[in-house]
């Protein structure tokens, strides 16, 4: 059985939550930026030459978040941690994935028109699709919750 996780899970989260870039200093390689993660008690300036360089820092953020959660008994969301730190060293569009966008479109279409994404019932759906659709549902709910909170905050300010 294929286990869905890691980079693909982050790509699903960002496909749903991404507010877009709109232009930033990290749109094209090469560039230098300060790491948001300490290395030897310092925040080094790193040179980014490719997407893989960005993923290396993302992996450090994931590790740091997981270690903090374990050591402090916390439960910070790893995808939120990466998403909030990404603009300090990379373009958010780095995690844009065309296949994931197609999956998101398929999910929304199937939900809206109440049709199965693939032929057959639940037991016949591809395992990877079941896992992805579960994540998509989770992050769409998180997005809706954020939008509701934002609307409440704006309403309270008389806007």
Please tell me about this protein's structure.
The protein has helices spanning 6-17, 51-72, 78-85, 98-113, 127-156, and strands at 31-34, 45-48. The chain has 159 residues and is mostly helical. Strands 1-2 form a two-stranded antiparallel sheet. It is globular, with a radius of gyration of 18 Å.
Shape: globular
Task: Average the pLDDT over all residues and give the rounded result.
Answer: 87
Count of DSSP strands: 2
| Approximate strand percentage | 5-15%
Determine the number of helices (DSSP H or I, runs of at least 4 residues). Answer: 5
Overall structural domain count: 2
Euclidean distance between termini CA atoms: 50 Å
**Secondary-structure element string:** HEEHHHH
